[in-house]
Amino acid sequence: MSKQDGSKSRLTRRGFLKATTTVAGASVLGLSASTAGQALAEGYTQSAKTDESEQTYSCSCMWTCSNCQYDVVVRDGLIRKACPKPDWVAHGGSRMCLRGMTQFQRIYQPNRIKYPMKRKSWSIDEPHPELRGQEDWERISWDEATTLIAEKWKKDQEQYGKQSVAVHHASGNTGLLNGVIGGLMPRLSNIMGMADLDTCADAALNHGLYRVFGQGTAPENEVTDLANAKTIIVWGANLTSYINPWQWVADARERGARLIVIDPVYSGTAAKADQWIAPRPGSDIVTLMGMMNYMVQEDLVNKDFLLNHTVAPVLINPDTNEYLRMSDLGVQPTEGSTDPLTGLPTLVDPPVVWDDSTGTIVPLDEALEPALSGERTIGNKRARTAYDYLVDELSNYPMETVCELTELPEETIVDLARTSADVPVFHYVFFGTQAYPNGVHLGHAFATLAALTGNVGMSGASLRAAGSYFSFDFAQVMPTGEMVTYVPILEFGNIVQSGEYAGKPFPVKSLYVYSANPLGGVPDEGKFRDEALSGLDLVVVAETQYTDTAKYADIILPAAHWYETADVQVLSISWPGIRITEKAVEPPFECKPDGQIARLLADKLGLGEYFQMSDEEFLQAAVDNSVMAQSNGITYERLLEEKSVRLDVENPMIAVPDLKFNTPTGRVEFYCEHPVPRMDYGQEYDVDYERLPRFFPPYEAWPGTEAEQKWPLILMSERHTGRWHTSANCSWISELYPEPTLRMNPEDAKARGIVRNDYVEATNSRGYAVARVVIDPAVRPGVVMYPKNWLKLEHKDGAWSEMCSAEFDPVGVNSNFMDNRCEVAKWNGGEQE
Ligand SMILES: Nc1nc2c(c(=O)[nH]1)N[C@H]1C(S)=C(S)[C@@H](COP(=O)(O)OP(=O)(O)OC[C@H]3O[C@@H](n4cnc5c(=O)[nH]c(N)nc54)[C@H](O)[C@@H]3O)O[C@H]1N2
Ligand SMILES: Nc1nc2c(c(=O)[nH]1)N[C@H]1C(S)=C(S)[C@@H](COP(=O)(O)OP(=O)(O)OC[C@H]3O[C@@H](n4cnc5c(=O)[nH]c(N)nc54)[C@H](O)[C@@H]3O)O[C@H]1N2
Ligand code: SF4
Ligand SMILES: [Mo]
After folding, report:
1. pLDDT for 728-745, tens place per residue?
2. Which of 431, 446, 784 to mutate to test the pocket of ligand 1 (most atoms within 8 A of CB)?
3. Which ligand is nearest to the CA of 180?
4. Measured distance CA(106)–CA(394) in Å, rounded
5. Residue 721: CB within 6 Å of ligand 3?
6. Which ligand neighbours the alpha carbon of 69 most closely?
7. Which of 127, 384, 389, 785 is 20 to 30 A removed from 595 (C-alpha atoms)?
């Protein structure tokens, strides 16, 4: 519901909120919020004074962070503190941050979900989705909850097909047993063939990199390799908000490395840099294209690398714009090795190049002196090299245009080009840069920069830092061979409303959400609620805390926190390896680990046969049967003993050291032969446009857009140091950072009569949010910036996720969290104007 929907509905909602926020906690607890919260708090303080023996457990943060492994200390059955393991440097666990140290308070907070709950007005036959959100909860038993869910799911799948039950999970828990990657819930959703909602976050950059380097691969070194860089260029990443990688940046700087930060806003990282470069938001591709154009002009490119490891010399068929191949010259393809997927022999039809040594056209890998550039006549065709096509495209970015679009001076672009050509360079590219519609092309441009400079396969040369290293045995989560069907969350409203996906019937009736709070994180949350959720008969949310999404559920299941169950952690942006997290305390009240919930549901669904193994057996199989574990001498038993095992203890992991890329040619394919959308559901896109990196402006955050005329300020988000998405609300952190804030440049504040500490209201056509203003010259004029980490229930009114645009590029199918506009005014306390 947005402000523009009319003041009547807005007033109603405001009154409703006032009436319900206090009730909410009470319902969740099954008793008064203050009583239970107080009891927990008192128990906590009293026993903190005793000095009985303590037990220490090795635990990890299970969200998508650095996955520090640290000590959690328990006394009298309650966690008292979490602290770094001083001797754990090699495992990346000797540093932890405030969020890790205070995490255990999330176990004891008043909005902890404690019992299974059902919306009173919901029943299988009369679901009344229009009454969702009214918080008329009743406590039910686990047996009742799982029976109702299973009954509804069975009915849906029989009547409408497997996809009619959808599942959504995001970043809450990445554990191998209870998390979203390899756990028992993914096992259940695979067995059932559910529709799985792809989060559509952080995905455009990856897609742009993968289409050049090969699916799932990017030249990312281990984060500790930052320390070996000569130059570190940080693009759109605020390393100081997640802290852990900073230690290696600091090490590199001590050794004399230069740190350049490219960010429209003077971030915490920019404040520590040797140089801060402040481009216009959404213009990083132009910077990159300008740098590359300059490199070509000034002959700064690495020709050896281009010729030997990229498709630069490949001739392009002018009729198809695909690679010219031997079959185009009348040479029939030959049979290659057997394709493991089809069992059939592959066809070998190599792309061709011009060989200067013989003056003939030969298969790509057979040329002695492949030509980088030049037009050749082949039969009746005139063909040019992929490199020439790139150079042509780059020539659309002359210095003058680049400076105008990026608002950067010429010497900055020249310096960036010269610095980037002087490899190795660690480009720490993260997600702020790509949260615009042109994000795929940004990834593509970074990949092309690596190709032009040969900044790949060596220490100190990287495009961001690797995020995940360990591959477990995937058969564990796909015991029937069945798999979920992925659908983009950004399309979910359309799917639910139309009952179709990819041009085929696709009715969806139920949604199971775990480890995610989509109503606090998807863009245009109102659209998601009103189009997607409202069309569903059953929404189940498994949660540790009462979230924006839990409020809109029909059934809530109380999940155990990470510290309340043993698990294995495989994901990490800190170091390549695998570690355990121990169970420190029992789940309180009726909370259960997600894996246990999956087992209960499976029993009721008649799928219990797939869940006979114990948790230990499941983990053991996932680890021991992993090819990667076997080749690194890792066993589950060893892991339990050592708690944490690195893949390569001696040296930082370097990506693609052999320069063999995971593409059909085995080379860096900066000219894409078959560019495809990240998720293909039959949407239209221009294939030829996608072959090379190109700039197109953001939909809103750019001069001259329609949105600019009405909404003068660009609205962008950042991560809050003290919080993790919407899930870090604990009392110590809340003392430091009590409420949502909005950062604004002094000029913009002055023009609107806004002064320090005012509450302000940001508004756009989709929604509004109220926050405390922080007047801050670090923020670029014309931009306002909010930490995206608050629950809607914590705002005085509105929420940031309401204001975010859900428009997206059909190739990237990614959320554009930075591409928004708004106007900001002093908040009038919610009174009617
Ligand atoms: N404390 C904390 N840390 C987190 C998280 C959290 O919730 N809390 N979440 C984690 C997750 S899941 C993710 S995906 C990562 C995201 O990590 P980051 O991408 O580093 O996160 P942001 O804080 O959003 O930083 C984005 C930066 O991009 C800048 N930016 C915006 N537009 C542009 C642009 O056009 N060009 C350039 N060069 N910069 C731009 C912004 O000003 C901002 O400083 O953070 C992880 N770390
Ligand atoms: N405006 C804006 N929105 C954004 C972004 C942005 O930059 N700007 N960034 C996006 C990005 S990159 C990301 S990754 C997403 C993150 O979006 P989400 O992953 O949805 O993040 P959270 O809001 O923290 O929701 C995770 C929920 O999981 C719950 N949880 C934690 N552990 C467990 C567990 O063991 N079991 C269960 N069942 N639940 C658990 C937590 O209590 C929390 O409520 O947000 C996206 N949204
Ligand atoms: S840096 Fe990340 S993983 Fe480490 S303690 Fe902080 S939140 Fe946890
Ligand atoms: Mo993310």
Report:
1. 678 888 899 999 999 999
2. 431
3. 2
4. 51
5. no
6. 3
7. 127
